[in-house]
Amino acid sequence: MTPVLRCLSNLLTEEAVEAGGGQVQLRDERVVASVFILLQFLLQKHPSLLPEGLWLLNNLTANSPSTCTSLLSLDLIKPLLQLLPVSNAVSVLVLTVLCNVAEKGPAYCQHLWPGPLLPSLLDTLAFSDTEVVDQSLELLQLLFLYRPEAAQAFLQQSGLQALKRHEEEAQLQDRGHALQQTALHR
């Protein structure tokens, strides 16, 4: 099943790029809805393949504002966040998809904040996996950039204490310090 998922991912992404002259133009919400049906199936029947399904969603959202819009209009952020505890690999991919959405700018971040995103990100800062934490820090940085009021909520919800847990980890020091400075100076 893994080769089929990878082929599907490559075909959808390749077709979308060709259709848009370099920009992914998949505007059909049915594609995003179908991917979520696939993710639900994988979670229930083949959880080890869930990262492959999320990789497909990552490919679709990477350069496509319209796919990100579909993700938001179908109200699929909360179901994505519910996948965070499944595994570290799944968490990284979920956070990457959310970063893809946040990178599209303020209008997209408006749909991410306020809502369940910040509490979920604070939970991921408790993970021991540095890749998960690093991706969480990236998403928080984007959120603070486009929704400065999220930085204040981060501080109010003990975000700095969550960051302190990773002060000794070399991979996370710079990003954690930058996020702390952003939060304090917003």
TrEMBL record:
Membrane-spanning ranges: none
Membrane listed as a keyword: yes
Keyword annotations: Membrane, Transmembrane
Gene3D superfamilies: Leucine-rich Repeat Variant
InterPro entries per record: ARM-like (IPR011989), ARM-type_fold (IPR016024)
Keyword Coiled coil: no
UniProt name for this protein: Transmembrane and coiled-coil domain-containing protein 6
Organism: Myotis davidii (David's myotis)
The organism's taxonomic lineage, starting at the top: Eukaryota, Metazoa, Chordata, Craniata, Vertebrata
